[in-house]
Amino acid sequence: MPLIDKLLKITVIFLAVATILQNHGYSITSFIAGFGITGLAVGFGAKETISNVFGSFSLLADKAYKIGDYIVINQAIQDKSVEGIVEDINLRSTKIRCSDGGLLIVPNNIVANGVVKNTSQKTSSHEY
Predict the structure, then answer these.
(1) Phi/psi class of residue 78: alpha, beta or left (left: φ > 0; alpha: ψ in -120 to 50)?
(2) How far apart are alpha carbons 110 and 128 in whole angstroms?
(3) pLDDT of residue 128
(4) For the domain bounded by 54-121, which CATH number is listed?
(5) Is 118 exposed, middle or buried (0-12, 13-18, 19+ CB in 10 A)?
(6) Any idea what the Cα angle at residue 57 is, between residues 53 and 60, rounded to 5°?
(7) Domain ranges of the chain
(8) 32 with 18: CB under 8 angstroms?
(9) Nearest alpha carbon to residue 56 among 84, 83, 92
(10) Which of 9, 22, 24, 85 is the most exposed place for a label (fewest CB within 10 A)?
(11) Looking at the chain, which runs of residues are DSSP E strands?
């Protein structure tokens, strides 16, 4: 996950700079408070992106589908049902190859909030 790797590097660099400044006699309390306020503002601005990331985590936890599976999602996008073969799953979206050959990129928050039917994971019928 390149995004998590980048976030970890930025956090380590931030902590290193804050420690160096603190050791040289600078008060970093207001510096950290400023970053907190900035983080809050960015969080409100990036609401959709954050919901896509959490949607990705829920899809990974549920193992609803994998690359190569044929899925049908109950959400209609531009008055068309979403169905096709999963080509890629990343933190922001899922890429689905439709039956007409087109590539549909669906944000993961839409997929996570919809009902996903995975026709590739059919089981054999059993009599009960």
Answers:
(1) left
(2) 35
(3) 45
(4) 2.30.30.60
(5) middle
(6) 135
(7) 2-45, 54-121
(8) yes
(9) 92
(10) 24
(11) 70-77, 80-89, 93-97, 103-107, 116-118
